[in-house]
Amino acid sequence: MSFFGINFGGGAEIDIILDDADTRKMADVKDENGRKERFYLFYDGESVTGKVNVTLHRKTGRLEHQGIKIELIGLIELYYDRGNHHEFLSLSKELARPGDL
Fold first, then answer.
1. Can you tell me the distance from the alpha carbon of 55 to that of 63, in angstroms, rounded to the nearest whole number?
2. How many CA atoms lie within 13 A of 6 on its CB side?
3. Which of 6, 21, 40, 70 is the least buried, fewest Cβ under 10 Å from its Cβ?
4. pLDDT band of 1, cuts 50, 70, 90
5. Residue in 56, 88, 51, 95 with CA at minimum distance from that of residue 72
6. C-alpha neighbours within 13 Å on the C-beta side of residue 94
7. Residue 95, by phi and psi: left (phi above 0), alpha (psi -120 to 50) or beta?
């Protein structure tokens, strides 16, 4: 199952695939506009594993990029203060330096 896909204007498509996405518990979170979004839940001590696929479209065959980095952003909601969410960056990993694919 693809976590999400990003299409770069016909040049490439990026898919992030979590290993346990089919069984992972999810939470509904409202954004600033009141829309609900679904996010995967991870608890302390759990590993986040998966893979990132970059698919180049055949007509271009090449993609110049400024680096590829993946960030895992966590959101904390305190039991006694459910109206406020505290965002933090828990993991940042550089997958590729700037160059061509």
1. 10
2. 9
3. 6
4. very low
5. 88
6. 6
7. alpha
- Output the six-digit token pair for 56: 């180049």
Q: Would you state the structure tokens that stand for residue 45, as one six-digit string?
A: 């001590």
Please say whether the beta carbons of 16 and 52 come within 8 A: yes
Average pLDDT over residues 10-33: 82
Q: What pLDDT, on the 0 to 100 scale, is given for residue 5?
A: 47
- Print burial letters for 25-58: b (CB count within 10 Å at least 16), e (below 16): eeeeeeeeeeeeeeeeeeeeeeeeeeeeebeeee
Show the tokens assigned to 95.
Answer: 């997958």
pLDDT at 70 (0 to 100): 83
Pick left, alpha or beta for residue 66 (phi over 0 → left; psi -120 to 50 → alpha; otherwise beta).
alpha
Per-residue pLDDT of 41-61, as tens digits, reads 888 788 888 888 888 877 767
